[in-house]
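Suppose a colleague, Dr. K., hands you the sequence of a protein chain of 280 amino acids and asks what its three-dimensional shape might be. Before reaching for any lab equipment, you can write down a predicted structure in C-alpha cell form. Begin with the sequence itself:
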Amino acid sequence: MPTFLAPDGTRLAYHVTGDGHSSAAGPIVCVPGGPADSRYLGDLGGLSAHRPLIVPDLRGTGRSAVPADRSSYRCDRLVDDIEALRVHLGLPRMTLLGHSAGANIATQYAARYPDRLDRLVLVGPGTRAVGLTIDAGTRRALALLRRDEPWFPAAFAALEALMEGTGGDPEAVAPFFHGRWDAEARRHHEAGRPDNEEAVALFGAEGAFTPQATRAALAGFEAPVLLLVGEFDLNSPPASVGELAAFFPDAALVVQPGAGHHPWIDDADRFVATLSAFTG
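The predicted structure, expressed as C-alpha cells, is then:
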C-alpha cells in the first residue's frame, strides 16, 4: 500500500482504486468520515470506473500510523495531511470529495487552499466547519418519515433518549442512516464503525473549527461545489445541507431519493450518475 509523510513526520497510507490512466481529469481524492477506517467507502458504488479514486487513511485509522502528538487528530490539523497528499501525488489542482465528518476537513481545505481545487464534492456532509448545528426537531421530523419501517419503534425510542440525554443505545439508531436496513446495510455499518475512540474524541477538540473565518473564506471560493445528501439522512438532514450550500458562491444541492447517510450503498447507479456528471 502506498504511503506518504505528513508535515509532522507521521506516515500515512492511502488506497488507489480504478485505472489511474482512465480519465484525463485525474483522480478524485476522497476523505472518509468518522474518523474511521476508509474501507467503508469502497469504490463509492462504482465511481472508480469513471475517475480513479485516491482514499487516504486518516491518521490513527486503517493502515496509517498513530501520531506522536495526539492533538494532531483535530480537524484543522487533518487539513494539513490532505495538502501533503496532494503534493505527494504531484497534483497542481484536484477534485476533492468529503463524506460525513470528512466533509468538515474538505470544507476547511477549500477555505484554506481555494486555488488548489477544481471541484469540491460534499456527500452527507458534516456542518461543524461552518458552525451550523442541527436541532433535535429537525432530526425528529426526518426520523418520523420512516415510521412504517418494521425497525422504527425501537430505533425511534433510542433516538429520543439520545437526543434528550437520558440514555439510549447508539447502535439501535443505525437503521436511520440507511435507505434500507438489509443485510448489505448491516455489513456496511459494521465496516464503517470507528475503532480509534481517541481520534473521534479529539477530532472536534477546542480550536478544530473557526466557523466565522471559514465562512468568510468560502465566500470567495470560485470552484463549483456539489452537495449530495440522502432524502432520509438523519446525520446530515437535507435542510441543513441546504444551509451549508448557501455559503458557497457556486453550489448545487442534490437530494437523492430513498437514500440515507451512505447514498452509494442505497442506490449506486443514481449516486454514480450524479457524481460522474459533475466531476467529468
